[in-house]
Specification:
Distance between the termini: 75 Å
Number of strands: 10
Structural class: alpha+beta
Shape: globular
Radius of gyration: 22 Å
Helix content: 25-40%
Number of helices: 8
Length: 268
């Protein structure tokens, strides 16, 4: 195993060229780095599509189940192949990247461990992720003071759900670090200072949350910037993300129209 882990950030987007820069190699321009998975200095790197076929047209039906990922190897792979035995043995670091657009960058999901391996062709692996080993950066979440007139206890419960380390990591692994309402990305604007910074918003209304509620971080949480987080909670109950997106869309159209109307008119 490599002496030190590479410092990829969960939820951050990476092109293959970004990955090459992090690990310190030149772009090979092809080969195994561009065909799904490859090894490098004792570590494995997986690049997979979720709900989208790869560049070759193959759709391997990769999908998340909660915070775990069901992943299929190349078309003819079996559990008896040396590469599959090595990647699933549990004694290697496996850096897993995924994307839903076969022309876009990949989202880093974390370092993966094989939870189950199915004897099928292609081989099917259920990957889990070592949450304890992942760096967690908690932003200052909203205090929600005065936001909810009923039950301060429930407000605290929501904040606990949103700030739970495992839930936060699973949410960002699936949805990335870009605000799902306005699209703002802290790393793109602030560089390294913004790495890993984002708020996490709970989609479920307070009335649906009880003492025995079981959080699904992929279904129930979304990354949002602090501004959008505050605007979502300006209403009681909180706005849907889709409703805030529509408000943003209408306001941009209004501002564009104002600019057009105030522009000097050509004199005939």
């Amino acid at each position: 195993m490599a002496a030190e882990a590479y410092q990829f950030v969960i939820g951050r987007s990476y092109t293959r060229q970004d990955v090459f820069r992090v690990i310190g190699i030149d772009d090979p321009g092809g080969g195994n780095w561009y065909t799904g998975y490859t090894s490098h200095r004792g570590d494995w790197f997986i690049f997979c599509g979720i709900g989208t076929p790869g560049r070759t047209g193959h759709d391997y039906r990769n999908h998340f189940v909660g915070s775990d990922l069901v992943w299929f190897g190349k078309t003819s792979t079996t559990i008896r192949q040396p590469s599959i035995r090595d990647i699933t043995a549990g004694n290697r670091r496996v850096y897993l990247f995924h994307r839903s657009d076969n022309r876009g960058p990949f989202v880093f999901a974390g370092t993966a461990k094989a939870k189950a391996v199915k004897d099928s062709t292609p081989v099917e692996v259920l990957w889990s992720f070592d949450l304890a080993a992942q760096p967690i950066n908690f932003p200052d979440e909203l205090p929600e003071v005065g936001s909810f007139l009923e039950g301060a206890r429930k407000t605290v419960t929501v904040n606990v759900y949103e700030r739970d380390a495992s839930a936060r990591v699973a949410c960002l692994r699936r949805w990335g670090l870009r605000c799902t309402a306005c699209g703002f990305d802290f790393n793109s604007t602030y560089g390294d200072l913004g790495d890993g910074y984002i708020h996490v918003h709970h989609l479920r209304p307070l009335s649906e949350i009880g003492a025995v509620y079981e959080l699904d971080p992929v279904r129930d949480l979304r990354p949002v910037c602090p501004n959008c987080h505050a605007m979502l909670h300006r209403k009681t109950p909180a706005l849907d993300i889709e409703a805030l997106q529509e408000i943003l869309r209408q306001e941009r159209m209004r501002q564009k129209q104002t600019v057009l109307e105030s522009a000097p008119q050509d004199i005939q």
